[in-house]
Protein backbone atom coordinates (compact mmCIF):
# COMPACT_ATOMS: atom_id res chain seq x y z
CA UNK A 1 0.00 0.00 0.00
CA UNK A 2 2.95 2.29 0.39
CA UNK A 3 2.83 2.97 -3.32
CA UNK A 4 -0.58 4.55 -3.05
CA UNK A 5 1.13 7.64 -1.68
CA UNK A 6 3.96 8.06 -4.17
CA UNK A 7 4.38 11.53 -5.59
CA UNK A 8 6.52 12.17 -8.60
CA UNK A 9 7.58 8.69 -9.72
CA UNK A 10 5.53 5.74 -10.88
CA UNK A 11 7.63 3.45 -8.69
CA UNK A 12 8.13 3.88 -4.95
CA UNK A 13 11.56 4.99 -3.78
CA UNK A 14 13.35 2.14 -1.99
CA UNK A 15 13.99 4.39 0.99
CA UNK A 16 12.03 7.66 1.07
CA UNK A 17 13.82 8.82 4.22
CA UNK A 18 17.06 8.86 2.23
CA UNK A 19 15.58 11.44 -0.13
CA UNK A 20 16.36 14.10 2.44
CA UNK A 21 16.08 17.03 0.05
CA UNK A 22 12.43 16.17 -0.61
CA UNK A 23 11.30 14.37 2.56
CA UNK A 24 12.99 16.86 4.90
CA UNK A 25 13.53 20.01 2.83
CA UNK A 26 15.12 23.20 4.11
CA UNK A 27 13.21 26.31 3.05
CA UNK A 28 15.11 29.31 1.72
CA UNK A 29 14.90 32.62 3.56
CA UNK A 30 12.06 33.99 1.42
CA UNK A 31 9.92 30.86 1.81
CA UNK A 32 10.60 30.65 5.53
CA UNK A 33 9.52 34.27 5.96
CA UNK A 34 6.31 33.70 4.03
CA UNK A 35 5.51 30.58 6.06
CA UNK A 36 6.19 32.42 9.32
CA UNK A 37 3.62 35.08 8.40
CA UNK A 38 0.85 32.48 8.90
CA UNK A 39 1.68 31.77 12.54
CA UNK A 40 3.12 32.98 15.82
CA UNK A 41 6.70 32.71 17.07
CA UNK A 42 7.39 30.75 20.28
CA UNK A 43 10.39 29.75 22.40
CA UNK A 44 10.23 26.09 23.47
CA UNK A 45 12.58 24.88 26.24
CA UNK A 46 14.59 21.70 25.81
CA UNK A 47 12.61 18.52 26.49
CA UNK A 48 9.20 20.13 25.91
CA UNK A 49 6.70 17.77 24.24
CA UNK A 50 5.46 19.60 21.16
CA UNK A 51 2.90 17.00 20.17
CA UNK A 52 2.20 13.39 21.11
CA UNK A 53 1.11 10.28 19.24
CA UNK A 54 -2.67 9.93 19.16
CA UNK A 55 -3.43 13.66 19.18
CA UNK A 56 -5.67 15.19 16.50
CA UNK A 57 -5.56 18.64 14.98
CA UNK A 58 -1.80 18.98 15.40
CA UNK A 59 -0.25 22.35 14.61
CA UNK A 60 2.37 22.85 11.90
CA UNK A 61 5.77 23.99 13.18
CA UNK A 62 8.53 25.82 11.32
CA UNK A 63 11.86 25.67 13.17
CA UNK A 64 13.77 28.97 13.27
CA UNK A 65 16.60 27.93 15.59
CA UNK A 66 17.18 24.74 17.56
CA UNK A 67 15.99 21.16 17.09
CA UNK A 68 12.69 19.28 17.12
CA UNK A 69 13.08 15.50 17.51
CA UNK A 70 10.44 13.25 15.95
CA UNK A 71 10.29 9.98 17.84
CA UNK A 72 8.50 6.66 18.11
CA UNK A 73 8.12 4.29 21.06
CA UNK A 74 8.52 0.52 20.72
CA UNK A 75 6.55 -2.18 22.56
CA UNK A 76 8.92 -2.02 25.52
CA UNK A 77 8.47 1.74 25.87
CA UNK A 78 11.91 2.54 24.49
CA UNK A 79 12.11 5.82 22.55
CA UNK A 80 13.48 5.79 18.99
CA UNK A 81 14.40 8.99 17.18
CA UNK A 82 13.00 8.95 13.63
CA UNK A 83 14.47 12.25 12.48
CA UNK A 84 15.50 15.66 13.79
CA UNK A 85 14.20 18.90 12.24
CA UNK A 86 16.50 21.92 12.36
CA UNK A 87 16.44 25.55 11.20
CA UNK A 88 14.21 26.25 8.16
CA UNK A 89 12.69 22.76 8.32
CA UNK A 90 9.13 21.88 9.34
CA UNK A 91 7.21 19.19 11.17
CA UNK A 92 4.20 17.22 10.03
CA UNK A 93 2.84 14.34 8.06
CA UNK A 94 -0.44 13.52 6.30
CA UNK A 95 -2.41 14.01 9.53
CA UNK A 96 -2.07 17.75 8.86
CA UNK A 97 -4.42 17.33 5.90
CA UNK A 98 -7.01 14.96 7.29
CA UNK A 99 -7.15 15.72 11.02
CA UNK A 100 -6.50 12.11 11.99
CA UNK A 101 -4.42 11.03 14.96
CA UNK A 102 -0.70 11.60 14.54
CA UNK A 103 1.45 8.45 14.48
CA UNK A 104 4.59 9.96 16.03
CA UNK A 105 5.59 12.35 18.81
CA UNK A 106 7.81 15.44 18.87
CA UNK A 107 9.90 17.21 21.49
CA UNK A 108 12.47 20.01 21.62
CA UNK A 109 15.96 18.50 21.52
CA UNK A 110 17.45 21.79 22.77
CA UNK A 111 15.99 25.21 23.50
CA UNK A 112 14.19 25.94 20.25
CA UNK A 113 12.65 28.97 18.57
CA UNK A 114 9.83 28.08 16.21
CA UNK A 115 6.68 29.33 14.48
CA UNK A 116 3.42 27.62 15.41
CA UNK A 117 0.76 27.59 12.69
CA UNK A 118 -2.74 26.47 13.66
CA UNK A 119 -4.71 24.12 11.35
CA UNK A 120 -6.74 26.98 9.85
CA UNK A 121 -3.57 28.91 9.13
CA UNK A 122 -1.96 25.82 7.62
CA UNK A 123 -4.87 25.45 5.19
CA UNK A 124 -4.50 29.10 4.20
CA UNK A 125 -0.79 28.50 3.68
CA UNK A 126 -1.39 25.47 1.43
CA UNK A 127 -4.03 27.34 -0.55
CA UNK A 128 -2.18 30.62 -0.84
CA UNK A 129 1.48 29.71 -1.42
CA UNK A 130 1.57 27.35 -4.39
CA UNK A 131 5.35 26.90 -4.59
CA UNK A 132 5.66 26.25 -0.86
CA UNK A 133 2.60 23.96 -0.86
CA UNK A 134 4.24 21.74 -3.48
CA UNK A 135 7.32 21.30 -1.29
CA UNK A 136 5.28 20.66 1.85
CA UNK A 137 2.86 18.16 0.28
CA UNK A 138 5.64 16.15 -1.32
CA UNK A 139 7.42 15.99 2.04
CA UNK A 140 4.29 14.93 3.93
CA UNK A 141 3.62 12.12 1.47
CA UNK A 142 7.19 10.85 1.45
CA UNK A 143 7.25 10.85 5.24
CA UNK A 144 4.15 8.65 5.34
CA UNK A 145 5.71 6.32 2.77
CA UNK A 146 8.78 6.13 4.99
CA UNK A 147 6.63 5.37 8.04
CA UNK A 148 4.91 2.57 6.15
CA UNK A 149 8.12 1.03 4.88
CA UNK A 150 9.98 1.35 8.19
CA UNK A 151 6.82 0.71 10.21
CA UNK A 152 7.17 3.87 12.25
CA UNK A 153 4.20 4.36 14.51
CA UNK A 154 3.08 0.83 13.64
CA UNK A 155 0.58 -1.29 15.51
CA UNK A 156 0.88 -5.08 15.90
CA UNK A 157 -1.54 -7.54 14.32
CA UNK A 158 -1.30 -11.05 15.81
CA UNK A 159 -3.07 -13.91 14.09
CA UNK A 160 -2.91 -16.64 11.50
CA UNK A 161 -1.52 -15.43 8.18
CA UNK A 162 -4.16 -17.54 6.39
CA UNK A 163 -7.00 -16.44 8.67
CA UNK A 164 -9.79 -14.56 6.97
CA UNK A 165 -10.12 -11.87 9.63
CA UNK A 166 -6.35 -11.42 9.80
CA UNK A 167 -6.35 -10.80 6.06
CA UNK A 168 -9.30 -8.43 6.41
CA UNK A 169 -7.51 -6.34 9.04
CA UNK A 170 -4.30 -6.29 7.00
CA UNK A 171 -6.16 -5.16 3.89
CA UNK A 172 -8.02 -2.46 5.81
CA UNK A 173 -4.81 -1.07 7.32
CA UNK A 174 -2.90 -1.32 4.05
CA UNK A 175 -5.55 0.44 1.99
CA UNK A 176 -5.80 3.19 4.60
CA UNK A 177 -1.99 3.64 4.66
CA UNK A 178 -1.58 2.71 8.32
CA UNK A 179 1.71 1.00 9.31
CA UNK A 180 1.56 -2.37 11.08
CA UNK A 181 3.60 -5.43 12.02
CA UNK A 182 2.09 -8.86 11.30
CA UNK A 183 2.98 -11.52 13.87
CA UNK A 184 1.88 -14.75 12.19
CA UNK A 185 1.06 -17.42 14.79
CA UNK A 186 1.52 -20.09 12.11
CA UNK A 187 5.24 -19.36 11.79
CA UNK A 188 6.23 -16.95 14.58
CA UNK A 189 7.08 -18.59 17.92
CA UNK A 190 7.02 -15.21 19.70
CA UNK A 191 3.48 -14.57 18.44
CA UNK A 192 2.31 -17.98 19.65
CA UNK A 193 3.90 -17.33 23.04
CA UNK A 194 2.09 -14.01 23.36
CA UNK A 195 -1.26 -15.64 22.63
CA UNK A 196 -0.60 -18.63 24.90
CA UNK A 197 0.28 -16.31 27.77
CA UNK A 198 -3.10 -14.61 27.41
CA UNK A 199 -5.06 -17.88 26.93
CA UNK A 200 -6.68 -16.63 23.75
CA UNK A 201 -8.99 -18.73 21.58
CA UNK A 202 -8.69 -18.79 17.76
CA UNK A 203 -12.05 -17.00 17.49
CA UNK A 204 -10.40 -13.96 19.08
CA UNK A 205 -7.80 -13.67 16.30
CA UNK A 206 -6.49 -11.35 15.13
CA UNK A 207 -5.43 -9.41 18.18
CA UNK A 208 -4.54 -5.78 17.47
CA UNK A 209 -2.13 -4.07 19.85
CA UNK A 210 -1.84 -0.29 19.76
CA UNK A 211 -0.25 2.10 22.26
CA UNK A 212 -3.32 4.35 21.98
CA UNK A 213 -6.01 1.83 22.92
CA UNK A 214 -6.65 -1.41 24.80
CA UNK A 215 -6.05 -4.66 22.95
CA UNK A 216 -8.67 -5.32 20.28
CA UNK A 217 -9.85 -8.88 19.65
CA UNK A 218 -10.97 -9.55 16.09
CA UNK A 219 -12.26 -5.97 15.71
CA UNK A 220 -14.62 -4.91 12.96
CA UNK A 221 -13.27 -2.38 10.48
CA UNK A 222 -15.34 0.35 12.11
CA UNK A 223 -14.09 -0.52 15.59
CA UNK A 224 -10.52 -0.54 14.34
CA UNK A 225 -10.97 2.79 12.58
CA UNK A 226 -12.35 4.37 15.76
CA UNK A 227 -9.51 3.01 17.89
CA UNK A 228 -6.83 4.26 15.48
CA UNK A 229 -8.43 7.64 14.91
CA UNK A 230 -9.17 7.01 11.24
CA UNK A 231 -12.85 7.88 11.61
CA UNK A 232 -13.97 11.45 12.07
CA UNK A 233 -16.89 12.82 14.06
CA UNK A 234 -19.49 14.54 11.90
CA UNK A 235 -21.48 17.58 13.00
CA UNK A 236 -25.12 16.50 12.53
CA UNK A 237 -26.25 20.11 12.09
CA UNK A 238 -23.68 21.11 9.50
CA UNK A 239 -25.05 21.24 5.94
CA UNK A 240 -22.55 20.44 3.20
CA UNK A 241 -22.86 21.76 -0.32
CA UNK A 242 -21.95 18.32 -1.70
CA UNK A 243 -21.93 14.86 -0.15
CA UNK A 244 -20.15 12.26 -2.27
CA UNK A 245 -21.06 8.66 -1.47
CA UNK A 246 -18.12 6.46 -2.40
CA UNK A 247 -14.40 7.17 -2.78
CA UNK A 248 -13.62 5.30 -5.97
CA UNK A 249 -12.20 7.13 -9.00
CA UNK A 250 -15.54 8.81 -9.78
CA UNK A 251 -16.18 9.92 -6.20
CA UNK A 252 -12.64 11.19 -5.65
CA UNK A 253 -12.72 13.12 -8.93
CA UNK A 254 -16.01 14.74 -7.91
CA UNK A 255 -14.51 15.63 -4.53
CA UNK A 256 -11.37 17.17 -6.04
CA UNK A 257 -13.26 19.35 -8.50
CA UNK A 258 -16.03 20.32 -6.07
CA UNK A 259 -13.63 21.28 -3.28
CA UNK A 260 -11.24 23.07 -5.63
CA UNK A 261 -14.15 25.21 -6.84
CA UNK A 262 -15.11 26.29 -3.34
CA UNK A 263 -17.92 23.85 -2.55
CA UNK A 264 -18.11 22.54 1.02
CA UNK A 265 -17.56 18.84 0.30
CA UNK A 266 -17.61 15.58 2.23
CA UNK A 267 -16.79 12.11 0.90
CA UNK A 268 -18.24 9.10 2.72
CA UNK A 269 -16.55 5.74 2.15
CA UNK A 270 -17.27 2.43 3.85
CA UNK A 271 -13.81 0.88 3.54
CA UNK A 272 -10.95 2.86 1.99
CA UNK A 273 -10.29 5.27 -0.87
CA UNK A 274 -9.98 3.75 -4.33
CA UNK A 275 -13.00 1.50 -4.63
CA UNK A 276 -12.48 -1.61 -6.74
CA UNK A 277 -9.92 0.25 -8.83
CA UNK A 278 -7.86 0.75 -5.67
CA UNK A 279 -7.10 -2.98 -5.58
CA UNK A 280 -5.80 -3.11 -9.15
CA UNK A 281 -2.14 -4.11 -9.30
CA UNK A 282 -1.42 -1.91 -12.31
CA UNK A 283 -3.48 0.17 -14.75
CA UNK A 284 -1.49 0.55 -17.96
CA UNK A 285 -3.96 2.33 -20.22
CA UNK A 286 -4.72 5.33 -17.99
CA UNK A 287 -3.80 8.56 -19.74
CA UNK A 288 -0.55 10.15 -18.63
CA UNK A 289 1.11 7.07 -17.11
CA UNK A 290 2.94 5.30 -19.94
CA UNK A 291 4.57 2.79 -17.59
CA UNK A 292 1.33 2.21 -15.70
CA UNK A 293 0.17 3.06 -12.20
CA UNK A 294 -1.38 0.91 -9.51
CA UNK A 295 -4.97 1.60 -8.55
CA UNK A 296 -3.80 2.26 -5.00
CA UNK A 297 -1.29 4.85 -6.19
CA UNK A 298 -3.91 6.64 -8.26
CA UNK A 299 -6.37 6.64 -5.37
CA UNK A 300 -3.73 7.82 -2.91
CA UNK A 301 -2.80 10.80 -5.06
CA UNK A 302 -6.46 11.71 -5.58
CA UNK A 303 -7.16 11.48 -1.85
CA UNK A 304 -4.32 13.85 -1.00
CA UNK A 305 -5.45 16.17 -3.79
CA UNK A 306 -9.01 16.28 -2.43
CA UNK A 307 -7.79 16.98 1.11
CA UNK A 308 -5.46 19.68 -0.18
CA UNK A 309 -8.51 21.60 -1.45
CA UNK A 310 -10.35 21.11 1.83
CA UNK A 311 -12.62 18.13 1.16
CA UNK A 312 -13.56 16.12 4.25
CA UNK A 313 -13.18 12.34 4.04
CA UNK A 314 -15.27 10.16 6.35
CA UNK A 315 -13.59 6.77 6.01
CA UNK A 316 -14.91 3.43 7.33
CA UNK A 317 -18.41 4.80 7.54
CA UNK A 318 -20.94 3.23 5.19
CA UNK A 319 -24.12 4.97 4.06
CA UNK A 320 -27.11 2.76 4.87
CA UNK A 321 -29.98 5.05 3.93
CA UNK A 322 -31.14 8.28 2.30
CA UNK A 323 -33.89 10.51 3.62
CA UNK A 324 -35.05 12.06 0.37
CA UNK A 325 -38.34 13.45 1.66
CA UNK A 326 -36.57 16.31 3.41
CA UNK A 327 -34.27 19.06 2.17
CA UNK A 328 -31.40 19.40 2.71
CA UNK A 329 -31.14 15.67 2.11
CA UNK A 330 -30.00 13.43 4.97
CA UNK A 331 -27.64 10.47 4.60
CA UNK A 332 -27.83 7.87 7.38
CA UNK A 333 -24.56 6.13 8.28
CA UNK A 334 -24.05 2.67 9.75
CA UNK A 335 -22.83 4.10 13.07
CA UNK A 336 -25.98 6.17 13.56
CA UNK A 337 -24.49 9.47 12.42
CA UNK A 338 -26.29 11.64 9.86
CA UNK A 339 -24.95 13.89 7.14
CA UNK A 340 -26.93 16.78 5.70
CA UNK A 341 -26.24 18.00 2.18
CA UNK A 342 -27.76 20.28 -0.43
CA UNK A 343 -26.62 17.98 -3.24
CA UNK A 344 -25.49 14.37 -3.43
CA UNK A 345 -23.20 12.52 -5.81
CA UNK A 346 -23.94 8.79 -5.86
CA UNK A 347 -20.60 7.13 -6.61
CA UNK A 348 -21.10 4.01 -4.52
CA UNK A 349 -19.89 1.69 -7.26
CA UNK A 350 -20.57 -2.02 -7.32
CA UNK A 351 -20.34 -5.15 -5.19
CA UNK A 352 -18.39 -8.25 -6.16
CA UNK A 353 -20.32 -11.14 -7.66
CA UNK A 354 -19.80 -14.64 -6.28
CA UNK A 355 -19.62 -18.10 -7.79
CA UNK A 356 -22.43 -20.57 -7.31
CA UNK A 357 -20.34 -23.50 -6.08
CA UNK A 358 -20.90 -25.77 -3.12
CA UNK A 359 -18.87 -24.77 -0.03
CA UNK A 360 -18.16 -21.34 -1.55
CA UNK A 361 -19.19 -19.42 1.57
CA UNK A 362 -17.03 -21.72 3.70
CA UNK A 363 -13.89 -20.52 1.93
CA UNK A 364 -14.66 -16.82 1.61
CA UNK A 365 -11.83 -15.01 3.37
CA UNK A 366 -10.19 -18.43 3.74
CA UNK A 367 -8.68 -18.63 0.28
CA UNK A 368 -11.22 -16.86 -1.94
CA UNK A 369 -10.22 -13.33 -2.90
CA UNK A 370 -11.77 -10.52 -4.94
CA UNK A 371 -8.57 -8.53 -5.47
CA UNK A 372 -4.91 -9.25 -6.11
CA UNK A 373 -2.75 -6.93 -4.03
CA UNK A 374 0.74 -7.46 -2.55
CA UNK A 375 -0.89 -9.03 0.52
CA UNK A 376 -2.51 -11.80 -1.54
CA UNK A 377 0.57 -12.09 -3.74
CA UNK A 378 2.69 -12.90 -0.69
CA UNK A 379 0.19 -15.55 0.44
CA UNK A 380 0.45 -17.56 -2.76
CA UNK A 381 4.14 -17.23 -3.55
CA UNK A 382 5.45 -20.33 -5.41
CA UNK A 383 1.97 -21.89 -5.45
CA UNK A 384 -0.63 -22.51 -8.16
CA UNK A 385 -3.54 -20.07 -8.23
CA UNK A 386 -6.82 -19.89 -10.12
CA UNK A 387 -8.25 -16.64 -11.52
CA UNK A 388 -11.88 -16.66 -12.65
CA UNK A 389 -12.97 -13.95 -15.07
CA UNK A 390 -12.29 -12.51 -18.50
CA UNK A 391 -12.23 -8.76 -17.87
CA UNK A 392 -9.34 -6.39 -17.35
CA UNK A 393 -9.34 -6.88 -13.58
CA UNK A 394 -8.82 -10.61 -14.04
CA UNK A 395 -6.12 -10.03 -16.64
CA UNK A 396 -4.26 -7.54 -14.47
CA UNK A 397 -4.46 -9.93 -11.52
CA UNK A 398 -3.13 -12.86 -13.57
CA UNK A 399 -0.17 -10.88 -14.89
CA UNK A 400 0.62 -9.44 -11.47
CA UNK A 401 0.47 -12.82 -9.71
CA UNK A 402 2.49 -14.59 -12.42
CA UNK A 403 5.60 -12.74 -11.22
CA UNK A 404 5.81 -14.74 -8.01
CA UNK A 405 3.47 -17.76 -8.16
CA UNK A 406 4.22 -21.18 -9.59
CA UNK A 407 1.41 -20.99 -12.17
CA UNK A 408 -1.80 -19.08 -12.88
CA UNK A 409 -4.88 -20.81 -14.31
CA UNK A 410 -7.41 -18.41 -15.87
CA UNK A 411 -10.94 -19.78 -16.21
CA UNK A 412 -13.49 -18.18 -18.54
CA UNK A 413 -16.93 -19.40 -19.57
CA UNK A 414 -16.58 -17.99 -23.09
CA UNK A 415 -14.40 -18.88 -26.06
CA UNK A 416 -11.51 -16.66 -25.03
CA UNK A 417 -10.43 -13.22 -23.84
CA UNK A 418 -10.42 -11.04 -26.96
CA UNK A 419 -14.03 -9.87 -26.61
CA UNK A 420 -13.78 -8.85 -22.95
CA UNK A 421 -10.18 -7.87 -22.21
CA UNK A 422 -7.83 -5.16 -23.49
CA UNK A 423 -5.52 -6.40 -26.22
CA UNK A 424 -2.30 -5.57 -24.36
CA UNK A 425 -3.36 -7.89 -21.53
CA UNK A 426 -4.49 -10.64 -23.90
CA UNK A 427 -1.09 -10.60 -25.60
CA UNK A 428 0.79 -10.55 -22.31
CA UNK A 429 -1.17 -13.52 -21.01
CA UNK A 430 -0.61 -15.49 -24.22
CA UNK A 431 3.13 -14.86 -24.03
CA UNK A 432 3.55 -15.85 -20.38
CA UNK A 433 4.77 -19.41 -19.70
CA UNK A 434 3.32 -19.12 -16.19
CA UNK A 435 -0.27 -18.49 -17.29
CA UNK A 436 -2.67 -20.99 -18.83
CA UNK A 437 -6.07 -19.98 -20.23
CA UNK A 438 -8.90 -22.49 -19.81
CA UNK A 439 -11.75 -21.41 -22.10
CA UNK A 440 -15.31 -22.72 -21.73
CA UNK A 441 -14.38 -23.77 -18.19
CA UNK A 442 -15.85 -23.11 -14.76
CA UNK A 443 -15.11 -23.93 -11.14
CA UNK A 444 -16.92 -27.12 -10.12
CA UNK A 445 -15.57 -27.96 -6.65
CA UNK A 446 -13.76 -26.45 -3.68
CA UNK A 447 -12.06 -28.56 -1.02
CA UNK A 448 -10.10 -27.86 2.11
CA UNK A 449 -9.76 -28.32 5.84
CA UNK A 450 -10.23 -24.94 7.49
CA UNK A 451 -8.98 -23.07 4.44
CA UNK A 452 -9.01 -23.70 0.70
CA UNK A 453 -6.61 -26.42 -0.48
CA UNK A 454 -7.96 -27.69 -3.80
CA UNK A 455 -9.91 -26.24 -6.73
CA UNK A 456 -11.67 -28.39 -9.31
CA UNK A 457 -12.75 -27.03 -12.70
CA UNK A 458 -14.73 -28.57 -15.52
CA UNK A 459 -14.92 -27.96 -19.28
CA UNK A 460 -18.48 -26.97 -20.11
CA UNK A 461 -18.64 -28.93 -23.39
CA UNK A 462 -16.62 -32.09 -22.78
CA UNK A 463 -17.24 -32.49 -19.05
CA UNK A 464 -13.54 -33.10 -18.50
CA UNK A 465 -12.57 -32.20 -14.94
CA UNK A 466 -9.24 -31.53 -13.33
CA UNK A 467 -8.31 -30.69 -9.77
CA UNK A 468 -5.36 -28.55 -8.79
CA UNK A 469 -3.68 -28.03 -5.40
CA UNK A 470 -4.66 -24.42 -4.83
CA UNK A 471 -5.04 -22.35 -1.68
CA UNK A 472 -5.98 -19.09 -3.39
CA UNK A 473 -8.87 -18.53 -5.80
CA UNK A 474 -9.37 -15.06 -7.30
CA UNK A 475 -12.97 -14.40 -8.36
CA UNK A 476 -13.35 -11.48 -10.78
CA UNK A 477 -16.61 -12.06 -12.59
CA UNK A 478 -18.11 -8.60 -12.48
CA UNK A 479 -20.31 -6.97 -9.92
CA UNK A 480 -23.78 -5.72 -9.11
CA UNK A 481 -24.83 -2.17 -8.30
CA UNK A 482 -24.33 -0.99 -4.73
CA UNK A 483 -27.66 0.83 -4.47
CA UNK A 484 -29.57 -0.86 -1.64
CA UNK A 485 -29.07 2.23 0.54
CA UNK A 486 -31.08 4.48 -1.79
CA UNK A 487 -34.35 3.40 -0.17
CA UNK A 488 -36.38 3.71 -3.38
CA UNK A 489 -35.52 7.40 -3.76
CA UNK A 490 -34.12 7.04 -7.29
CA UNK A 491 -35.23 5.23 -10.42
CA UNK A 492 -33.08 2.17 -11.11
CA UNK A 493 -32.77 -0.11 -14.10
CA UNK A 494 -33.52 -3.84 -13.95
CA UNK A 495 -30.04 -4.62 -12.67
CA UNK A 496 -30.23 -2.03 -9.91
CA UNK A 497 -28.04 0.65 -11.53
CA UNK A 498 -29.09 4.30 -11.23
CA UNK A 499 -30.86 5.78 -14.25
CA UNK A 500 -29.68 9.23 -15.26
CA UNK A 501 -30.32 11.85 -17.91
CA UNK A 502 -34.10 11.49 -18.12
CA UNK A 503 -36.97 12.04 -15.69
CA UNK A 504 -39.76 9.53 -14.98
CA UNK A 505 -41.66 10.81 -18.05
CA UNK A 506 -38.74 10.37 -20.37
CA UNK A 507 -37.97 14.08 -20.55
CA UNK A 508 -34.34 15.17 -20.88
CA UNK A 509 -32.77 16.37 -17.61
CA UNK A 510 -30.28 19.28 -17.41
CA UNK A 511 -27.33 16.91 -16.97
CA UNK A 512 -26.59 13.40 -18.28
CA UNK A 513 -25.67 12.54 -14.68
CA UNK A 514 -28.83 13.95 -13.09
CA UNK A 515 -31.21 11.46 -11.48
CA UNK A 516 -34.96 11.66 -10.99
CA UNK A 517 -34.33 13.48 -7.69
CA UNK A 518 -33.30 17.14 -8.02
CA UNK A 519 -29.77 17.80 -6.81
CA UNK A 520 -28.84 14.11 -6.76
CA UNK A 521 -26.42 12.81 -9.40
CA UNK A 522 -24.88 9.44 -10.21
CA UNK A 523 -21.42 8.87 -11.69
CA UNK A 524 -19.08 5.98 -12.35
CA UNK A 525 -19.85 2.27 -12.26
CA UNK A 526 -23.10 2.71 -10.29
CA UNK A 527 -24.67 4.69 -13.16
CA UNK A 528 -26.79 2.78 -15.66
CA UNK A 529 -25.09 2.67 -19.05
CA UNK A 530 -21.72 3.90 -17.83
CA UNK A 531 -18.48 2.63 -19.33
CA UNK A 532 -16.82 0.56 -16.61
CA UNK A 533 -13.37 2.11 -16.93
CA UNK A 534 -11.31 4.19 -14.51
CA UNK A 535 -10.76 7.01 -17.02
CA UNK A 536 -14.46 7.37 -17.80
CA UNK A 537 -15.34 7.32 -14.09
CA UNK A 538 -12.84 10.11 -13.42
CA UNK A 539 -14.29 12.08 -16.32
CA UNK A 540 -17.85 11.72 -15.05
CA UNK A 541 -16.85 12.70 -11.52
CA UNK A 542 -15.15 15.87 -12.73
CA UNK A 543 -17.85 16.93 -15.19
CA UNK A 544 -20.78 16.48 -12.79
CA UNK A 545 -19.55 19.40 -10.65
CA UNK A 546 -20.71 21.87 -13.31
CA UNK A 547 -24.26 20.56 -12.95
CA UNK A 548 -24.02 20.82 -9.16
CA UNK A 549 -23.02 24.48 -9.44
CA UNK A 550 -26.02 25.17 -11.65
CA UNK A 551 -28.34 23.41 -9.20
CA UNK A 552 -26.98 25.19 -6.12
CA UNK A 553 -26.78 28.58 -7.84
CA UNK A 554 -29.46 28.67 -10.54
CA UNK A 555 -29.21 31.55 -13.01
CA UNK A 556 -31.49 34.51 -12.34
CA UNK A 557 -34.63 34.59 -14.47
UniProtKB/TrEMBL annotation:
Domain Cyclic nucleotide-binding intervals: 23-143
Recorded coiled-coil stretches: none
Keywords: Flavoprotein, Oxidoreductase
SUPFAM superfamilies xrefs: cAMP-binding domain-like, FAD/NAD(P)-binding domain
Gene3D superfamilies: FAD/NAD(P)-binding domain (3.50.50.60), Jelly Rolls (2.60.120.10)
Superkingdom per UniProt: Bacteria
Matches recorded under Pfam families: cNMP_binding, Pyr_redox_2
InterPro entries found in the cross-reference section: cNMP-bd_dom, cNMP-bd_dom_sf, FAD/NAD-bd_sf, FAD/NAD-binding_dom, Ferredoxin-NADP_redctase_2, RmlC-like_jellyroll
Official protein name in the record: FAD-dependent oxidoreductase
Organism listed in the record: Uliginosibacterium silvisoli
Amino acid sequence: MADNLNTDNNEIPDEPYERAAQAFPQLDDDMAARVASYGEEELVPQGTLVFERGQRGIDFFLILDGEIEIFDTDDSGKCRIVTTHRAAQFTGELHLLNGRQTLLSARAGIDTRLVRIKPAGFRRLIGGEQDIAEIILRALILRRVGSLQRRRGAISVIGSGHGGDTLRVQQFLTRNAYPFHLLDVDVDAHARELLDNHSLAPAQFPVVLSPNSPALFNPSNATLADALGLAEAIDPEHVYDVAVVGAGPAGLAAAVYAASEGLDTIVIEGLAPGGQAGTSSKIENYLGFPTGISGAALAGRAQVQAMKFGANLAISRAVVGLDCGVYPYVLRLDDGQRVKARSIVVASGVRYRKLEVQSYSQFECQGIHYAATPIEQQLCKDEEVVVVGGGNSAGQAAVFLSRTVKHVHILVRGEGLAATMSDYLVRRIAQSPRITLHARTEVSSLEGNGYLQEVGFTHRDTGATQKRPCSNLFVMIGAGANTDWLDGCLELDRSGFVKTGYDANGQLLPSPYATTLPGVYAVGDVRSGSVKRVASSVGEGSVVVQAIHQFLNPPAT
